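User: Study the shape:
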Amino acid sequence: MFRRIMTVTAALAACAATAFAGDDDVSRRWAVIAGMNLSCPTTASVERSPRDAGNIAAFASPQCNVMLEYYLPQQHFSLVGGYNAETVQWFGSKVDATMQNIVVGARYYPLSKRFALQPYASLMTNINVAGRYVRSSMSAWNGSDSYERNSIISLPRVSIAPAVGVDCYIFSSLALEFQYGFPLAIDGKAHVATTCNGNPDVYRLRSNMHRHNIQIGLKATFPFRFTAADGNSLFSLIEMALGIYDPADEKKQETKKERRRMKLNRVLDSY
């Protein structure tokens, strides 16, 4: 299975390289990005009962994001805006909340557009347009143990999100996008208090709502192009999917050193 994944990855990279080989006139004016993102909040401090073990914070269920990107006349900069949703959770989703964000920001691409891999750095501003305050209370029993948990979450109205990512162009106007960001919440707070078995001790968790964020998406650039090289790459991908073609079976080109060695071996074998 791992070998198959590596083969697919290598094939996509080969297709991208083929599509962009010798293409110095890559015209991109704007783009549409659609995908999903996952967020995991950080914890500022925690006091936890041994009976309440487990992951305190983890990546929540994926949420959607839709972005528009406009490439500035300057070669390496673009403006990005759109919508994303973020769900943050603690204690295995027993405490969670979702933000609805309007996103605006800018990106910097250090490489020329003719390269199939386009790494970038960005600075985004997330503006939460949903409700800010979420309160919840719950209790549970597990055999002889029981606990009660109360939470108060104040979602940030604004978060500043530095991020890094890469666009991997599988065709001239179609790319897979991967991004990691760390939104820094402004005036975000979460407090969770847990009591176990009716004991007077209270175990508290506090978060400032900073969070790790991972985005995966598909990006289409416009004016949309589909070249002959793209067609050949698509044909190769279809063949590979049907099991007709495997990049690992391609005969490698011999280097000059290898050709000299072969000639020398043939001479020696003739004696």
User: Anything to note?
Assistant: The first strand starts at residue 30 and ends at 41. The first helix runs from residue 2 to 20. The chain has a mean pLDDT of 82. Residues 117 and 168 are 5 Å apart (CA to CA).
